[in-house]
Amino acid sequence: MFRIKIPPTVLLFLIVGGASCIFVFYGLYLLIALIALNLACLLFAPIARRRGWGAEGRLTRHLNRPRMERESRRAIRRESVRTLQEER
Question: Taking the C-alpha atoms of 64, 68, 74 and 76 in order, what is their torsion angle to the nearest 10 degrees?
């Protein structure tokens, strides 16, 4: 397909070098974009909370649920309670 064969190490060097050049030249713009995205999220969060778009309620319900137990463990626990009550 290609007549020129580029060794993998050279190809890796070119890719990493190109990516680092992008960050050098556009790093400030990337930083500004991330700060703007953070501000947008901070401004949007109270609106989403008021309208119930978030998952905070679901997470609270999930964390407040009682622990789930397998039926076999419940049966063993019931048997041990019965034997303790019979011994008294």
Answer: -110
What is the residue-wise DSSP string for 26-81?
HHHHHHHHHHHHHHHHHHHHHHHHHHT-SSHHHHHHHHHSPPP--HHHHHHHHHHH
Which residue bears the tokens 């019979």?
A: 86
If pLDDT is split at 50, 70 and 90, which confidence band does 26 have? confident
In sequence order, what are the residues at sequence separation of 6 or more whose Cβ sits closer than 8 angstroms to the Cβ of residue 23? 30
pTM to 2 decimal places: 0.41
Q: How sure is the predictor about 63, in pLDDT bands with cuts at 50, 70 and 90?
A: confident
